[in-house]
Amino acid sequence: MGVEPIGIVTLLVGVFCLLRGSGPTVIAFSIFPVLGGAAALLLGSTGIQPGHLFLGLLLLSTLMLHGNPSSTVDRALRSQPFAWLVLLVLYGVLAGYFAPRLLQDTMTIVPLGPQAGAGINGTIPLGPVSGNFTQAVYLFADLVTFTLILAVASTPKGFRHVAIGLMGFGAANVFFGIADLISPGTPIEGLFAYIRNASYTFHADELVAGMRRIIGSWPEASAFAGASMAVIGYCGTLWICGRHNKVSGFLFIASCILIVRSTSSGGIAGLPVCLAILYATSLFRCGGPTGTRASLAVVLAFPIAALLFIFVLVLSRDVYQLVYNFIDVIILSKPTSLSALERGSWNASGISNFFDSYGLGVGLGTVRTSSFAVALLSNVGVPGTLFFLLFLLTGILMPRGTPRTYEADVGLAARNGCLCLIVGALISGSTVDLGLVFFIMAGLRSAVPHGVRGPAAEPA
To answer: Whose CA is closest to 442, among 186, 92, 88, 183?
Structure first.
């Protein structure tokens, strides 16, 4: 086992936060998942990310140093989404162990993770793979994250700390995106080596449409864009609701610009869907004595801005050609690229595995796909997909709290952040694991503390 420099930094920050209390600990934990391309610890060819390492420190803080184990367990057992998530994890772990063995050699798969002996077309006969174990660990970590955040955010102070921590995640993601943009030829470029040390294939310095792709602290542009869409959903909703509006507004606008600049096809295709979610939120959040200026401005200005943009495209051929060429390179011609054809073959193989396994799935972490929906169906089948949808319904989609209060607005922001992250995963997600930040937002959404005092919303 080897400890990387970023791992030492993670441990030092963790010890400092533990000494300061539960607030700094949960805030730091909410930020560390941004280091999605880093390995804090190396166990052979497997790396432990800083966010997962810090999860152990949050567990220590919540259950021993600054919390009560019995109250944490009680809050979890009383939570309906917790029950569905437990069933998803249990079914995923059991299917990941038994399905590849019971159905061994009955079909071919595109394996998740490096697998010796893969065929020329990337497929191998069905059997146990390393992803069965690693994805089970990731999904169990997601369950622990949801449980701890649910417990922490069930108190007024804890709720606010998690809310601030997620804004910190957005700020860190924007910071690394901007740093990556300006890094070529500067000392910053060398510093990225310390947070791009995991055993992934990093797609840095790639050019698309004559522009260098932005990956920030992630392995590739699509991962950076996916994280940025979560920031757009969360911070954009906070800005619309007039909560922390100066910081959240900046992070929302910066993330939109960085997604376009990243040249990620999934990010650019998913951005309009995320903006549509925010526009629908503005429609319900504007008006009345508690309506906000931002929500009213979005409702009135967005259609006008869209019409003006269309007029500019119609009247200026040069602008139209520039926009069309960019969209053509990024999206329209993407289906014919080698990458898109390969990802399409992954999905086709995954759908075939779903039907060949009679809808039960071939096991968590067994196959690689290029869509979260296909990953669910092929890996955990109908039962696992049903458990996830029930978790999504009870934990994220159901309204909570008194409308237009601080807790309701932050919960709404967490919901939109989860939905925007799912939008990105549906386009290019390769596994069932949606990442720690998704379950941090889900835990915040599922918690309903009483007496939370936050800053007043900016009136309309």
So the answer is: 88
